[in-house]
């Protein structure tokens, strides 16, 4: 009896599930999976409760409820000056993960090549494989994790049809600057490529570093599919409300695949995220400042323990090199860490084709309450004794 298909061969269980299960089994502090340990704003929860109680519990339109599509379009205009038609240029998805899946299934053919930045969010590899495409990784390397433009240019071949971009970048925390984005845009225009831009951490950049959507660059609005979600910006990761915006033909391709994945989801949660997107500037400023302070707490503590710390410009995550503490393999280190110190983290080498580049690197989540971070750091102090 055949028990699995070749399209999922070698994918296994995600590292996030493995490490979260390890945390639950051992009682370790979970700095592995990137979810907050506090909920988002009460008024957004209240909107969801109102929707549940007012009968908004059946299928939503496949593209999303009208008020959420309008709110997403308004958000793109408010923050980035992008003009988006809510009727034809917005698709609401079951989180950004489904948006990525539907984009790749809807836009990429078997045998096509997709350029992707590594280390990469693990669903990228899975969905490129499921689409029958070929990934062409471009590695962001320690200590700076900047985009190597020459390597990017070399990765594009006549078979390339798409660039899968991620900025702010998970797991390194790099925020691509305008010059780096212009290099991507130049290649996309020269080779007539689609850019699928994962921007879920758009409201989590620190120290005044701006997030620049690549769709705002000249010649890019017409070839960019921008992906984001409410989970990271409002601390409702379990709601799984994401979206894709861009030219109508690209959005139609997403919907063409999405309709046979989930069709629709989260009906009573969609109006709540529409309300959240209308939050005033004070919310976004306070949210970013709080995460920046948690970043600083974790980064300073890890450095004090003896790790080499690469302080991120954005996202939920800080990266360390474990070699100063006498370790050289992130997978072995992370699997033994709960017993050594009662903490869970994530090894970055599982996000690489270039395994050696990621072997000594470990990712730590700081989207946790300060007291949880402090507890984790106290436990990790055992590594230096």
Structure in words:
- By secondary structure, this protein is of the alpha/beta class.
- It folds into 2 domains: 6-40 and 282-384, Aspartate Aminotransferase, domain 1 (Alpha-Beta Complex), CATH 3.90.1150.10; 56-279, Aspartate Aminotransferase, domain 2 (3-Layer(aba) Sandwich).
- It is 41% helix and 15% strand.
- It has 14 helices and 13 strands.
- The protein has a 7-stranded mixed β-sheet with strand order 2-8-7-6-5-3-4, sandwiched between helices. A 4-stranded antiparallel β-sheet has the order 9-10-13-12. It has a two-stranded parallel ribbon with strand order 1-11.
- α5 (122-130) links the parallel β3 and β4.
- α4 (95-107) packs parallel to α5 (122-130).
- It is globular, with a radius of gyration of 20 Å.
- The model has no long low-confidence stretch (mean pLDDT 96).
Query: Can you write the helix and strand succession as a string?
Result: HEHHEHEHEHEHEEHEHHHEEHEEHEH
- Work out the helicity level: 40-55%
Biggest sheet layout: 7 strands, mixed
Number of strands: 13
- The second-level CATH architecture of the largest domain is 3-Layer(aba) Sandwich
The rounded Rg comes to: 20 Å
Structural class: alpha/beta
Tell me, rounded to a whole number, the average pLDDT: 96
Shape: globular
What is the assigned CATH homologous superfamily of the largest domain?
Type I PLP-dependent aspartate aminotransferase-like (Major domain)
Compute the number of helices.
14
Poorly predicted sequence stretches spanning 5 or more consecutive residues: none
CATH topology-level fold name of the largest domain: Aspartate Aminotransferase, domain 2
Question: How far apart are the termini?
Answer: 53 Å
CATH uppermost class of the largest domain: Alpha Beta
Number of domains: 2
Proportion of beta-strand residues: 15-25%
Strand order of the largest sheet: 2-8-7-6-5-3-4
């Amino acid at each position: 009896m055949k028990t699995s298909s070749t399209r999922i061969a070698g994918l296994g269980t995600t590292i996030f599930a493995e490490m979260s299960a390890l945390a639950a089994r051992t009682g370790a502090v979970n700095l592995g999976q990137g979810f907050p340990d506090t909920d988002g704003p009460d008024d957004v929860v209240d909107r969801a409760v109102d929707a549940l109680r007012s009968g908004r519990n059946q299928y939503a339109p496949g593209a999303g409820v009208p008020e959420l599509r309008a709110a997403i379009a308004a958000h793109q205009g408010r923050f980035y000056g992008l003009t988006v038609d809510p009727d034809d240029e917005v698709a609401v998805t079951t989180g950004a993960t489904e948006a990525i899946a539907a984009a790749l299934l809807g836009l990429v053919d078997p045998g096509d090549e997709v350029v992707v930045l590594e280390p990469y969010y693990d669903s990228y590899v899975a969905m490129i494989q499921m689409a029958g495409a070929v990934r062409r990784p471009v590695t962001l390397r320690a200590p700076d994790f900047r985009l190597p433009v020459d390597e990017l240019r070399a990765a594009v071949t006549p078979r390339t049809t798409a660039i899968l971009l991620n900025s702010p970048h998970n797991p390194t925390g790099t925020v691509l600057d305008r010059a780096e984005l212009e290099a991507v845009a130049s290649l996309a225009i020269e080779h007539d490529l689609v850019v699928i831009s994962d921007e879920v951490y758009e409201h989590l950049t620190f120290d005044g570093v701006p997030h620049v959507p690549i769709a705002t660059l000249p010649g890019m609005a017409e070839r960019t599919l921008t992906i984001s979600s409410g989970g990271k910006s409002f601390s409702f990761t379990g709601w799984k409300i994401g979206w894709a915006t861009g030219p109508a033909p690209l959005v139609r391709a997403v919907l063409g695949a999405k309709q046979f994945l989930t069709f629709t989801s989260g009906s009573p949660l969609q109006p709540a995220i529409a309300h959240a997107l209308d939050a005033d500037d004070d919310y976004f400023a306070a949210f970013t400042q709080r995460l920046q302070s948690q970043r600083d707490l974790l980064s300073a503590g890890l450095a004090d323990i003896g790790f080499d710390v690469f302080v991120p410009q954005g996202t939920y995550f800080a990266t360390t090199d474990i070699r100063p503490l006498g370790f050289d393999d992130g997978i072995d280190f992370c699997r033994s860490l709960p017993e050594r110190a009662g903490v869970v983290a994530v090894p970055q080498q599982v996000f690489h084709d270039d395994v050696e580049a990621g072997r000594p690197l470990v990712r730590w989540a700081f989207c946790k309450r300060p007291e949880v971070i402090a507890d984790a750091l106290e436990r990790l102090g055992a590594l230096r004794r």
